[in-house]
Amino acid sequence: MPQRARQIVKIVAIPCLLIVILPLLFATTYGVLPSRAMELVGSTFILEYLAIPLGIGLRLPPLYVFLTVVSTGIGIFILVLGIFHLLGAQSQRIVNFLLKWRGRVRRLQKYGIYGLIPGATLLGVYGCAALVWFLGWDTRQSTLFTIIGFVLISAILLFSSIGILEIISPG
Q: pTM for this structure?
């Protein structure tokens, strides 16, 4: 297998597991139709963690909604970051641009990685992936902090959505 094809498979394999396979397994476990599962996954691609109120409003099981949105969000982050790394490695112009700008934002690089926790709320997984790539932060550490932020905001939205749904339509 050529080197580039191997890189693409590596970039796509884990996100595919997180974005497609796990949500379908969760759907089977919670008795959710596969079509509904993919609707929630598609909504997560567009709305990110804001797909949680949508899933709760559609009366899908709350734990299923949480697990599916978090799994999909993590998969999206890993996929987008992988695509950025792949594209960045192919262009010397991009490498030169990144080196120039990374030197100008040293203070942000020193303390900023912890900002990915609240950043997942403000920027979402797409924005965090772009920021991580742009600033050249450690991929594992950045993924961990983004996941923590995404899980926290998802849990807050889950409980808020359940509470609001109980007020709107009790019983």
A: 0.88
Q: How many angstroms separate the CA atoms of 156 and 141, rounded?
A: 23
Asked if 84 contacts 125 with a C-beta cutoff of 8 angstroms, the reply is: no
From first to last of its 171 residues, the chain has per-residue pLDDT tens of 677 778 788 889 999 999 999 999 999 999 999 999 999 999 999 999 999 999 999 999 999 999 999 999 999 999 999 998 888 777 777 777 777 776 666 665 666 788 889 989 999 999 999 888 888 888 999 999 999 999 999 999 999 999 988 888 876
CA distance 88 to 118: 26
In the chain, where the domains are located = 3-168
Alpha-carbon dihedral angle through residues 64, 76, 4, 97, given to the nearest 10 degrees? -170
